[in-house]
Amino acid sequence: MSVETKTVNWVAACATGDIDEEDVIRFDYAGASYAVYRISDGFYASDGWCTHEQAHLADGFVVDREIECPLHQGRFDIPSGKAMSPPVCVHLKTYPVRVEDGQVLLGVPAQEAS
């Protein structure tokens, strides 16, 4: 399912029940990879790849409101994408998320008209 708006495409990434609280899953769409998180106050999404080296954050650990990279244990704030601890120093890009009818919808960048 995909609904296009002016700036983003809303894409069904998963069902709300697919992610336990304090967990993360991988979602690939249109050649890009994302990490979708569930923490105590809701669902969030970011780029899937760590900004330090090529490790997918879905293989990492959610600790409170942070995702820990599985490769070198750098941490990012999940809601903001802010780099929180070395070796990561470049923030993650985050994406809007909304929940409708039991589905977690990810707002991915709308494709340029061809």
TrEMBL record:
- UniProt cross-references to CDD domains, sorted A to Z: Rieske_RO_ferredoxin
Query: Which cofactors does this protein require?
Result: [2Fe-2S] cluster
Q: Which Pfam families match?
A: Rieske
Q: Which UniProt keywords apply?
A: 2Fe-2S, Iron, Iron-sulfur, Metal-binding
Q: Name one GO molecular function term.
A: metal ion binding
Q: Does the keyword Iron apply?
A: yes
Family matches, as PROSITE patterns: RIESKE (PS51296)
Look up keyword Iron and say if it applies.
yes
Domain Rieske stretches: 11-106
Q: What family is reported?
A: Belongs to the bacterial ring-hydroxylating dioxygenase ferredoxin component family.
Its recorded name reads MocE
Q: Per the UniProt entry, what species is this protein from, by scientific name?
A: Caballeronia glathei
